[in-house]
Design a protein that fits this description.
Chain lengths: 692, 261
């Protein structure tokens, strides 16, 4: 009896898991396809799925189109068109770029594309307007062929369309010359080109197909979501990566099985976990939270515990050695006179801003400036891990959140001094960073980034819900309140200006620490590792040790910054401040400005907090003598989404100028001025010689 | 002569194909030993097994009397094995002197993290002097401040040697140092290496397929073919061994001038 019901439940779970499983398989296939043919770890896949789903939704609901035309527009026209555009304009030119820089660009795109679509198509997610599927009455008509699990029409459509898509792909691979060539391209694009295979056309085809798959998956999966929001679709890409990783990223059939298996696994888990937790009460808290995070757990587990994947990491391009090394920092080649001018300008600039902030600015600007300074502190953590250690970490948001939550918990429970709590939070973050770095250390570039992303989502889905982290229950909704610190006679809560001063002091201390590290043994060691890991090992550098330190330091800084940000807002505000998707934008911002310098972090902090109000809302113009709030040009205020579009798209130049836009501009300017100054020096020297 | 490095029965399979078959070699204190073999003989595999980059399926490596078979790559480096690379491996965005400074710091430095934070991590005058001494020895003194991007391949290889020297190795493994260099550059490199070795007294294991360099530079020779040692002994004798000539130079009748490809 019990066995019979167990069997029935298992079958039900498998049937239930089949519709999402086939969609996961579809998107996993698309993911592997792009990776195989252009070496791009396309994190923008979720964004592409979102765009198709939103387009379909808009055409159906707002324009009242029929299902077929809406489907043709969103999946068969728009999706492949986006794929082709991305391939032609961006990735084709970057075929020889490193896997990490392509990943950074894909992250930039995943930030930019949804915002761009929402601006262009004038789409806004509205709560309560639920997406519909590609068949009429998809969610209300059921079929129960086996008498165990009733499939909705939507679910049957998911299975049918996904299977059709896979058959189509299989046919292309098996029966066309392009399919064969597709398999050759990824090994070494340069080699393939030398062998006369038109790699361009092949990768364009692959991008069109895989983008169509992404769009299709987006439209198919949409009815499962209550509201169409771009961030929900980002998790789709995690699912795709989990499926793809199960296929070791190279095998399409295995990715298919991986996707299907993932769908089944999640359904089985959801069916049986509630029963186990009846017997084992300690499982209960995990019950609700673990299920949605399963894809992340699977992805992380696969990456860390499956040694085979490490061996298949980054097929090395035999010709990669011909790439030029990264250029030296502008400041390291500066003429002394130019250094003095730069410093003088910097001091003058900060005196002016400081004077404005402390004596002129109103509450709103003080708040924004404080936010800018605190974000700059958080961004210094990216300077350490990405700029110095050369690793892409996508879980800085989680580290910062640890700082914020620690302050909240310590103040809430123990009434502890907030500044002390902030330090404890930073140390906890450092500990978590060090522990996290242990299993992921052996993963190289891209895989490390993905593992940290999986961790960020795991933290988001499971840890934040726990009462000893996020306060549990209604705390996340009603607020995780954080007091401002009091230090002796100074109450930083009394005036926002004193808190700004505190933030500036912390920033200066952290910045000096970061510079000391860069110039000291750790910085040199990391630079050596980034330059050549084998060579660094050959002189006795332990890569593991250096990276653990880098991770811990970076997490410490992020935790400290996160604690300060929570104090400033008097609330942790987890989902606005620290969610994994929000933290992706941090990385994009820092990397596209300058990841290797302290100024870069500061500029990124200011860009995050002030770009919107100053530029997009037009405040900068308002300060001009002949303009004010009332006679601004009519296109102000510009949508805040442009911020994501602009910085997301500037991340594209990462492949060419990994030092960042600002650093690149600075180097060019420095170069010119340098030449002039050195020429003058030479002329003077010559004149002096003549005079003798 | 005391053996500083000994390998016993190093065996390595790659998915069923035997790349190394029980290779035994030894290198004496201060000795210059060559390891040659045609392409695909297993030289690089063997080299990587010595350094710990690959784990052999069987066999042990002993260094100065200790079994180092289970040590990681960087631990073996710290034990006193320095190396250079066939395809040059330098730290980008770093000057010549800084290369040596990094190695010097790794070798002699301590308590890095807190010292760094307190600003005591910057290079000291003593360290810089030590680095400059080695640069002097290698004839690179003038290039100390140059970024490595500005160097020729031959100079780059000398920087690799200098970087290795800062860790005061007792054994230097040279991985095809002649690759990418022309005859003159190779000769100059060999001359410099000989001078440095005479001063510092470390042993050298040279993996090479440039017979000319090997014949002039090494005292003793091992010849590897299809994963097995086919000959060993004093360099001149071994090179004239018919089996070696057959394996290494093919069936062509060649005189001793040929071989520097």
């Amino acid at each position: 009896m019990i066995l019979a019901s167990f069997g029935e439940d298992l079958i039900r779970a498998i049937l239930q898991g089949t519709p999402p499983g086939t969609v996961y398989a579809l998107i996993g296939l698309g993911f592997v396809l792009t990776y195989k043919t252009s070496g791009v770890f396309n994190l923008a896949f979720g964004a592409q799925a979102y765009i198709s789903a939103a387009m379909f939704f808009k055409a159906r609901q707002d324009w009242e189109w029929g299902i077929v035309p809406a489907l043709i527009l969103s999946v068969f026209v728009l999706a492949p068109a986006i794929g082709l555009i991305l391939e032609r304009l961006i990735f084709r030119n970057l075929r020889t770029a490193s896997a990490v820089s392509k990943l950074v660009i894909a992250i930039g795109l995943s930030v930019a594309l949804p915002a761009l679509f929402e601006i262009v198509a004038d789409y806004k997610p509205v709560a309560g307007r639920s997406p519909t599927g590609i068949v009429p009455n998809g969610s209300s008509v059921f079929y129960d062929p086996l008498g165990v699990y009733p499939f909705s029409r939507d679910e049957l459509a998911q299975i049918a369309v996904a299977v059709l898509g896979m058959l189509l792909l299989g046919a292309i691979f098996r029966f066309t010359a392009a399919g064969l060539a597709m398999r050759a391209v990824v090994e070494s694009p340069r080699m393939t080109e030398l062998a006369g295979i038109p790699a361009d056309r092949i990768s364009a085809l692959a991008w069109a197909i895989s983008s169509m798959f992404a769009g299709m998956a987006g439209v198919l999966i949409a009815p499962r979501l209550p509201t169409l929001i771009s961030t929900d679709f980002f998790t789709l890409v995690i699912v795709a990566m989990a499926a793809a990783a199960l296929g070791r990223l190279v095998s399409l059939p295995r990715a298919l099985i991986g996707g299907l298996g993932l769908g089944w696994f999640i359904a089985i888990f959801r069916t049986f976990l509630p029963r186990w937790s009846d017997d084992y009460t300690w499982l209960e808290p995990f019950e609700d939270n673990l299920a949605p995070s399963l894809p992340f757990v699977v992805l992380f587990g696969v990456l860390v515990f499956w040694p085979a994947i490490r061996r298949s990491i980054d097929a090395t391009d035999p010709l990669s050695g011909v790439d030029p090394p990264p250029p030296a920092l502008a400041s390291s080649t500066r003429h002394p006179l130019l250094t003095m001018q730069t410093r003088a300008f910097g001091v003058a600039f900060f005196l002016l801003v400081g004077w404005l902030a402390f004596f002129r600015a109103d509450g709103r600007w003080v708040f924004l400036l404080t936010q800018a300074v605190i974000l700059s502190i958080i961004y210094l953590s990216i300077t350490v891990i990405t700029g110095f250690a050369g690793q892409i970490s996508l879980c800085q948001g989680a580290f910062a959140a640890i700082g914020g939550f620690t302050v909240f918990q310590m103040a809430d429970r123990y009434d502890m001094s907030v500044l002390l709590a902030a330090l404890i939070g930073a140390f906890i973050a450092a500990l978590v960073g060090a522990l996290l770095s242990l299993p992921v250390l052996r993963l190289g570039g891209v895989w490390l980034a993905i593992a940290t992303l999986a961790f960020a989502f795991f933290f988001d889905a499971v840890m934040v819900q726990a009462s000893w982290v996020g306060g549990g229950g209604t705390a996340l909704l009603s607020g995780t309140e954080v007091p401002r610190p009091v230090l002796g006679p100074i109450d930083f809560g009394a005036s926002d200006r004193t808190f700004l001063a505190l933030a500036i002091v912390v920033f200066i201390i952290v910045a000096i620490g970061v510079i000391q590290l860069r110039e000291g043994t750790i910085g040199r060691t990391l630079r050596a590792l980034r330059g050549s890991e084998v060579a660094a090992e050959s002189i006795g550098i332990s890569p593991a040790r250096a990276r653990i330190i880098a991770f811990a330091v970076s997490a410490f800084i992020a935790g400290l910054g996160g604690a300060l940000l929570s104090m400033q807002q008097k609330n942790v505000n987890y989902s606005t401040n620290f969610s994994p998707v929000a933290a992706l934008f941090w990385l994009v911002l820092v990397v596209s400005l300058s990841a290797r310098t302290v100024e870069g972090a500061g500029q990124a902090g200011f860009a995050f907090a002030l770009f919107g109000p100053l530029i997009l809302e037009g405040s900068l113009l308002e300060w001009l003598p002949f303009l004010n709030e009332d006679n601004l040009p009519s296109f102000f205020p510009i949508s805040a989404k442009w911020r994501f579009v602009l910085f997301g798209l500037t991340a594209i130049q990462f492949a060419r100028h990994p030092e960042g836009m600002l650093e690149f501009g600075k180097r060019r300017a420095t170069h010119k001025r340098n030449e002039r100054y050195y020429a003058r020096d030479a002329a003077r020297a010559a004149a002096a010689e003549l005079a003798q | 002569m005391n053996a500083i490095l000994e390998s016993h029965g190093i065996t390595k399979d790659f998915s069923g194909i035997r790349a190394l078959n029980g290779v035994d070699i030894n290198v004496g204190e201060g000795e210059r030993v060559g390891l040659i073999g045609p392409n695909g003989a297993g030289k690089t595999t063997f080299f990587n097994c010595l350094l710990g980059i690959l784990t052999p399926d069987a066999g042990t490596v002993q260094f100065r009397g200790n079994d180092i078979s289970n040590l990681r790559v960087h631990k073996r480096a710290r034990a006193g094995i320095g190396r250079t690379f066939q395809r040059i491996e330098l730290f980008s965005d770093t000057s010549v002197r800084e290369h040596l400074l990094i190695a010097e710091r790794v070798h002699n430095g301590s308590g890095a993290f807190w010292k760094d934070l307190l600003g005591m991590g910057r290079p000291t005058a003593v360290e810089i002097e030590r680095c400059d001494d080695v640069l002097e020895l290698l004839g690179l003194r003038e290039l100390g401040d140059e970024p490595i991007e500005a160097l020729s391949l031959g100079q780059g290889r000398l920087v690799e040697v200098g970087r290795a020297l800062m860790t005061e190795p007792r054994l230097l493994l040279l991985d095809e140092p002649s690759s990418g260099l022309d005859r003159e550059e190779t000769a100059a490199l060999a001359a410099t290496l000989r001078e440095v070795q005479a001063e510092k007294g470390f042993a050298i294991l040279l993996v090479e397929h440039d017979v000319e360099l090997v014949s002039k530079f090494t005292e003793r020779l091992y010849v590897l073919d299809f994963g097995s040692l086919i000959a060993q002994g004093p360099t001149a004798e071994t090179l004239s061994d018919p089996a070696v000539r057959r394996a290494y130079l093919g069936t062509l009748e060649v005189d001793s001038e040929v071989g520097s490809d």
